[in-house]
């Protein structure tokens, strides 16, 4: 009795463990919804990561350029400088040997002047020098200090510092726009990949239903043939239909797994992680105002700003082109004071003022028309960029119109597909009854089965096409008609994009 009870307990525990493992295995498979796919892609998508890295590159370049406009401090230290040279003195026609030992430090402060493209610098050189010459057998040691304030100012030319800074600001803005556009494209691509998996899963389910129906048909005709109520040829056709249905299921399974791998790759998921799709493809028609879609698209589409940036960049290049072989001047002003003395505390007892002024001009004379031709070529490039802006505006209007028409057409296609599926279901059921009564061949029933399967797939595809076109209109117009609210491009930029 005790042995029997222990065996029952062991059996109960064993069955319980099996149940636990089954539940854990079922829970291990992640259920993936469209919103969850978006969340995964926001952090894992390789395309978005590349766009973010490109944005970071331009942001850091802009930060570096702004930092370069602040004061620069540097210190050059030469602890030991020793030299011994044999020289000839023309005054007395004698050779002599000179030894020199020196140590010094040079402190420099440079401040770029953004408003004038000039540079203001302050330098101070302090050192000690020991020199010996055997010409007169004298040795001298001295401390020295040279303090200079220097201004270098270009004249009659464009401000290179301002132009370079503005270019980097535009590059950063363009990269931010590209990132925002990538986020919009990410939403569209994730939706398409997600629904590709859903359709592959739907095809698999339809194929399995078709196999189940084909199996029932095969069993019916097999029983009839064995009872002598149907010809042997009907059984052969039923066997062929059953084999074809099994092959269709296998092909659908392969397509389903391939679609899941493509989605994993785009989302940046672990390729060995399995999941199942949970999608809501029900369609509620959304009212769309075409004029409002076009208006918000022209006001908000970031591609237009990109074309404007292209125009500005080409104009900057025109400025550079015009500076070729230009008349240019440079002014260099220096105020300085220097002193030296064997005693450190008396270095500035008798200081020497060292002012200097230098003005230079570069005057081009003749370049065989090179500058004129290059300017004309760049002006043509500027006009081309302006045409691109106009074409972009027209393309936005056309794209929104086409998407709107497709959206309205999809509603019609959904209704047709729904009616087609209903008719195909009723037709199949009627002909299945005829088949069971022996009034229809297996080949004819297979055609009705295929028609039913295709109608189910077409209906689901029509629903998905409507959702994708609605999303496409949202991206084209930057207006969410489902929630009746605009999409602000600034909301798509990264946070802290103006923290510098």
UniProtKB/TrEMBL annotation:
Keyword Transmembrane: yes
Subcellular location: Cell outer membrane
GO molecular function: efflux transmembrane transporter activity; porin activity
Coiled-coil residues: 375-424
Xref: SUPFAM superfamilies: Outer membrane efflux proteins (OEP)
One of the record's GO cellular component terms: cell outer membrane
Protein name: Outer membrane protein TolC
Gene source species: Tangfeifania diversioriginum
């Amino acid at each position: 009795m005790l042995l029997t009870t222990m065996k029952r307990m062991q059996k109960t525990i064993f069955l319980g463990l099996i149940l636990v493992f089954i539940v854990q295995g079922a829970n291990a498979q992640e259920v993936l919804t469209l919103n969850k796919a978006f969340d995964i892609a926001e952090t894992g998508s390789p395309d978005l990561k590349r766009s973010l890295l490109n944005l970071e590159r331009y942001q850091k370049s802009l930060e570096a350029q702004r930092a370069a406009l602040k004061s620069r401090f540097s210190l050059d230290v030469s602890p030991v400088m020793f030299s011994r040279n044999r020289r000839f003195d023309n005054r007395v026609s004698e050779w002599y040997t000179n030894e020199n030992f020196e140590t010094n430090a040079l402190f420099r402060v440079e401040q770029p002047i953004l408003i004038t493209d000039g540079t203001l610098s302050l330098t101070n050189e302090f050192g000690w020098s020991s020199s010996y010459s055997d010409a007169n057998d004298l040795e001298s040691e001295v401390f020295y200090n040279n303090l200079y304030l220097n201004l270098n100012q270009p004249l009659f030319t464009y401000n290179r510092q301002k132009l370079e800074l503005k270019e980097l600001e535009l590059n950063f803005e363009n990269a931010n726009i590209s990132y925002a556009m990538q986020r919009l494209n990410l939403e569209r691509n994730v939706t398409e990949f997600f629904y590709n998996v859903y359709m592959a899963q739907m095809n698999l389910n339809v194929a399995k239903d078709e196999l189940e129906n084909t199996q029932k048909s095969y069993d019916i005709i097999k029983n009839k043939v064995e009872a002598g109520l149907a010809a042997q040829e009907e059984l052969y056709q039923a066997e062929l239909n059953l084999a074809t249905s099994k092959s269709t299921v296998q092909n659908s399974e392969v397509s389903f797994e391939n679609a899941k791998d493509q989605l994993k790759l785009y989302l940046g998921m672990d390729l060995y992680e399995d999941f199942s799709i949970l999608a809501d493809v029900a369609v509620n028609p959304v009212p769309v105002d075409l004029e409002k879609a076009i208006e918000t698209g022209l006001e908000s589409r970031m591609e237009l700003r990109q074309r404007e940036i292209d125009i500005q960049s080409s104009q900057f290049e025109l400025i550079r082109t015009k500076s070729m072989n230009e008349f240019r001047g440079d002014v260099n002003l220096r105020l300085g004071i220097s002193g030296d003395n064997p005693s450190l505390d008396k270095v500035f007892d008798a200081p020497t003022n060292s002012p200097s002024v230098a003005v230079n001009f570069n005057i081009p004379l003749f370049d065989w028309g090179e500058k004129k031709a290059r300017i004309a070529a760049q002006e043509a490039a500027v006009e081309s960029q302006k045409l691109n802006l106009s074409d972009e505006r027209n393309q936005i209007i056309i794209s929104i119109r086409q998407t709107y028409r497709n959206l309205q057409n999809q509603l019609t296609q959904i209704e047709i597909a729904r009616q087609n599926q209903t008719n195909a279901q009723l037709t199949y059921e009627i002909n299945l009854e005829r088949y069971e009564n022996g009034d229809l061949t297996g080949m004819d029933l297979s055609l009705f089965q295929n028609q039913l399967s295709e109608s189910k797939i077409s209906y689901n595809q029509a629903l998905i096409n409507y959702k994708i076109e609605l999303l496409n209109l949202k991206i084209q117009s930057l207006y969410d008609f489902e929630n009746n609210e605009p999409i602000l491009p600034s909301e798509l930029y990264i946070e802290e994009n103006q923290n510098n």
